[in-house]
Amino acid sequence: MSADRLTLAVAGHVDHGKTALTGALTGVDTDRLPEERRRGLSIRPGYADLPLPSGRAASVVDLPGHERFVRHMIGGAAGVDGALLCVACHDGVMPQSREHLEVLGLMGVPVVAVAMTFADRARPGEAVGGLAGVEGVPVVAVAAPDGRGVEELRRELDRGLTERASAGEGEARLPIDRAFSVAGAGTVVTGTLIGAGGLAEGDVVRVEPSGARGRVRRVEAVSYTHLTLPTKIV
Predict the structure, then answer these.
(1) Class assignment of domain 6-167?
(2) For the segment 37-85, what is each residue's pLDDT rounded down to a tens digit?
């Protein structure tokens, strides 16, 4: 399993246009649950492929923005390479704008671009001025319905993710989401692979914090809309 594919989290306050912008960037509606579509509200992280001008493979995780679903947001942001922060032009910085930035900072996920959404409704102004965590980050005004600024944003994301990849992440790591036993297979763990390396059959791994060692017998990658999701190691 290679870690070459880059992953971008789309973060920000509820109703700040994250899902619509993700759709404009990827062509995929990431609100796949009937309840999400009925309420017009993301509940679970959504996934899609992200075409980049450089041809580099990338994926998007559209994070829920409502304060009630911050745990789902944290789960979706685990192991991503960078983040796109969405701030609505007509609303400005809101509580979950700051909360998502704080969570991303604690997880070591850099913001590679800021999208000022709903540029068709209001001027961006200085809506992100003084917001900690986005200093020096490119800010692009976008309007998902008519595609305004989307290609410019795509170029900025490409540049930011490429710089992130070039910096390297050290040896491969797999934060474990679940661990269980399967008859005839042994211990199975799932998680999202991060780091510059990869994992393959026969590799020796170290389990922290115990320091116990084991050998990989099989690696499986589950796909959803062509996106590589949590890796399963036996």
Answers:
(1) alpha beta
(2) 888 778 888 899 998 999 887 889 999 988 888 888 888 887 788 999 9
Q: How far is CA 230 from CA 11, 107, 179, in A?
A: 20, 17, 12
- pTM strictly above 0.85: no
For the chain, domain boundaries: 6-167, 176-233
